[in-house]
Amino acid sequence: MSFPLIRPRRLRTTAGLRRMVRETSLSPDDFIYPLFVVEGRGRREPIASLAGQCHLSPDLAAQEAKAAFDLGIPAVILFGLPERKDASGSEAWAEEGVVQQAVRAIKQAAPELLVICDVCLCEYTDHGHCGLLKGETVDNDSTLPLLARTAVSQARAGADLVAPSDMMDGRVGAIRLALDEAGLSQVAIMAYSAKYASAFYGPFREAAQSAPSFGDRKAYQMDPANAREALKEVSLDIEEGADMVMVKPALPYLDVIRRVRESCHLPLAAYSVSGEYAMIKTAAEHGLLDGQAAMLECLTAIKRAGADMIITYFAPEAAGLLG
Predict the structure, then answer these.
(1) Which domains are delineated in the chain?
(2) For a Cys-Cys bond, which of 49, 69, 172, 319 suits 110, CB 3.0-4.6 Å?
C-alpha cells in the first residue's frame, strides 16, 4: 500500500494525536542540575559565561538545590571552587572543603534529593590539570590515590554518588576499592566514561576557574574523532565497578550516546555541557531562535539518542515548563 492509503500526516493533525503517538517523552525526572559552590555565606555571584547561573556559597547552594527538588528534579551535581589551591589539589578531600560543606547543607535542606559530587582535581590544583604533575605531564598512577581520597571524603559528607571526571586510567577501580574499604559500599559511582577533549567546555572552565595554566587535556581526555574507543572506555569502567556511565559532551556526540546505549545495560547519563547551553542562550538573546523551543528540542534529542538522565544547566527552566 502507498499514497493515498498511507498518510502519516493523519497522526500529526492535532496536539492530542501528536502527544499520544510521541516516541520520546521528557520530564523533570530526567534532569541533573549542576551547581558551582564557593566558600563563605550569603554569596550569590552571577557567572558571566553562563547566563542565569551563579557561584553559590553552601547555604545558598542548599536553597537552590531545594528549589530544584521542588520542581521535580531528582539530583544535583556539585563543583567546588576553593579559595586556596596547591599542586596536589588538597582542598578536594578536605573535611571542611567547600563541596563537603555544601553536601551537608543540601542534605539538611532536602534529604531526599540525590547529591552527586564531581571527582576531579582540576578545580583545586594551582596548575589547573586533573592530576599530579611530573614535569608537564599528568601522572596517571600517582593521581589515583588522591581521587580515591576525594571520593571517600565526599561520600562521608553524605554524597549519594561520586562522579570521577578526570579520565585517568583505573580511577573507577581505585575509587570503588577505597569506598568499600571505608565502609561506604552503598555509595554509587557515575563514571564520566567517554569524556572528550571538547571545544564546548569553555564557559565551564571560566565558571569553575579550572582552565589549565599550560598545555591542554588531550593526553587524557578522548579524541573527538573516536567512537569505538568510547565503547572500550565504557567497558573498562563497568569492569572496574561503575554503577552508571556517562558521555560528555552530549549534542556533538549523539552518535556515541546511541552506540553506548546499544552496547551496555547500565544507566546512561549525558552531560549537556556549558558550550551547548551558552550557544542557545546567546542565540535566543539575539533573537535568532526561540530559546525555550530550542532547549526542549535539544534535550529531547539527547534522550532520544539513548540517555536515561541529562546533566543540564537548563534543568530548572525545562522542569518549570514540563512540570
Answers:
(1) 26-322 (3.20.20.70)
(2) 69
